[in-house]
Structures
1.
Amino acid sequence: IINQNGIFFKLTKHFTAEIIKSDDAFGNIFVPQAIKFDNHDFVITTIGQKSFASNYNITDFQFSDDSKLELIKKEAFSCSSIVSISIPQSIKQIGKDAFSYCKDLKT
């Protein structure tokens, strides 16, 4: 597990990464295609369950144009202050209640 800019990632042996929590993340969030750790690129494929839930400090959420994100797990953003998100074309599944109670979400 590593922390980059207040976002915690779980890394796998297959060189993928999952966002697992975001206690210290705030403002506009940009998620690149991959993060670097130990001279290896780990492709971000998943936003984990409740990883941004109840985070009242985030607003805009964007992904790189070449994003490989495939899954947004259930309740990932529930009860957060997110206002907008650009969901990448690579997405295959969005979990139940991923954006529930996001009263400020516009787009």
2.
Amino acid sequence: LHLVLSPQVRAERAWERLRERLAILLLALLVDFLALWLVLRASLAPLRHLAEGARAIADGRTDIALRREGSPELRDLIGTFNAMVGALRDSQAELRESEERLRVAIE
């Protein structure tokens, strides 16, 4: 048995292996980026909710309470935000009561 491999055949095999490995690498990178995007999207959801809550406060709505979710730091921040909204709501109620007492006293 006599086997002869030409440089052309060896080069073609090398290129084929390289193309296969590059395709696998590209697929792995695509899967990594997709997984990273999904993780970031899920982990940033509490921040989006917090931003929506802040916009609601800016619009004058104090009837909101955000669900505490996410990392411990985010849960703490959301709890503080909810406490702030409650304090703001109480202050506004006290102000309305004070205005009503003043109005009654003036009349």
3.
Amino acid sequence: ILARDRDIMNKAEYERQLRLGNRALAAGNWAGARAAFQAAAKLLPDDLAAKEGLRAVRYGKALEDGNRAITQKNRAAAIAAFQAALEERPGDLKARQGLELAKKLK
């Protein structure tokens, strides 16, 4: 296979993995999204779309974990999860509100 043909095949697979990742992300399938975005990042390591997808996965999972911890009255886990979400999206309103709510748990 010529290098150009390999590059074209890699780009097509990269785009397929991004589509899979975005679909999984929209469905809240964090593991599936993570796997797809990681596969895309291996194919084109310098491209930002896969990196942003992985950041969105970490953020979404952290919010979900934080909300679950609040319903379970697990203050420490909720605080940690919302802080993790804020690391991915500094200043994010949902994560800030969740963190404030978590800090009020007894």
4.
Amino acid sequence: PTPAPPTPQLLFAELGALAQPQLAVRADGALALAFVGAKSAIHVAVRSPGAEWSAPRLLGEEPNLAAGMRRGPRIAWAGEALVVSYIASRFDREKRKVVGTGNLYA
């Protein structure tokens, strides 16, 4: 018989509404998840093979975080190092202009 698909797991509900999840997989199977929380807070959590997710770690808050369709923080493993990047710029619909520095952070 075909095995049942895994049951989805709700992660980090205590942080409220989350957005822009990005997942990275290391060669040994470790997972890293970057996501955006309230006040454009950027968080990261890690799960080692066979273990539970770590508590999310706050990397910082960026009021002008580029977060939207196909945007938000990006995450990747570089050997044992975990790299998270984001852009400090967004389009303000009310002012009809780009705000923020436009700087890329990693």
